[in-house]
Amino acid sequence: MKTIGIVLAGGQSKRFGEPKALALRRGKPFLFYSVEALRPIVDQVVVVAQPHIQKQIQLKDVQWIEDVSQHKGKGPLAGIYSAMKHHGATWYIVLPCDIPFIHETIVTALKQQADDAFDAIVPYVNRRPQPLVAIYHHRVKSLIYDCLQQGEYRMYTFLSSCRVKHIEMKEEQPFMNINTKEQYYKWIG
Ligand SMILES: Nc1nc2c(ncn2[C@@H]2O[C@H](COP(=O)(O)OP(=O)(O)OP(=O)(O)O)[C@@H](O)[C@H]2O)c(=O)[nH]1
Fold it and tell me: Domain count of the chain?
């Protein structure tokens, strides 16, 4: 069962003011933590980012791709689709690049929930769905394609057409995403 890890790093980071993928926690870029959480569990890690991010960071055994041109920068759904288009697999484990407390045990727990009867495995933390820290079956590629073709870029609209298995996760910190400098100084220091 081939599994690809997708790290989404093609966002604008407007609220943060500089690329979140390159922000540091304990001397390592945020992107590093998402890649390392996936690496032991997947067959290949694919980072979907703009080329200037790749130029500023060294990561071993990672495949870098850009968003497909017609949906460049249109949001996470476009990034997931771009990775699926480049790499065939049964399952895709998706992580954003702005959750620097993520760790391998969360990804392992998610992968253990992979179930062919569902299109997506989405954790719930504190009653909130986490669709950017989730697993998608390859069959959703055509559903995403349809959304993108219709100019529908919202993750939740796409998910409403999927069979989703929700799993409750207790630990909150690994899912904490940093969007602003205030959050950065509060949680990272
Ligand atoms: N490949 C790709 N990733 C994206 C895109 N938009 C957002 N992401 C990633 O998805 C995750 C969540 O992004 P957001 O925080 O919602 O958006 P952002 O653009 O990074 O930040 P803001 O500009 O402040 O909204 C981050 O890891 C982003 O890098 C996109 O168009 N393509």
Answer: 1
Residues 6+ apart with CB under 8 A from 45: 4, 5, 7, 35, 38, 39, 61, 62, 63
- 69: domain CATH number is 3.90.550.10
Which residue, judged by its Cα, is nearest atom 20 of ligand 1?
Answer: 11
Q: Which residues line ligand 1 (CB under 6 A)?
A: 8-16, 20, 48, 67, 73-76, 78-79, 96-98, 132, 179
From first to last of its 189 residues, the chain has per-residue pLDDT tens of 899 999 999 999 999 999 999 999 999 999 999 999 999 999 999 999 999 999 999 999 999 999 999 999 999 999 999 999 999 999 999 999 999 999 999 999 999 999 999 999 999 999 999 999 999 999 999 999 999 999 999 999 999 999 999 999 999 999 999 999 999 999 998
Q: Which domain covers residue 142, as residue numbers?
A: 3-187
Distance 39 CA to ligand 1 centre (A): 21
Please state the atom number of ligand 1 nearest to the C-alpha of residue 67: 1
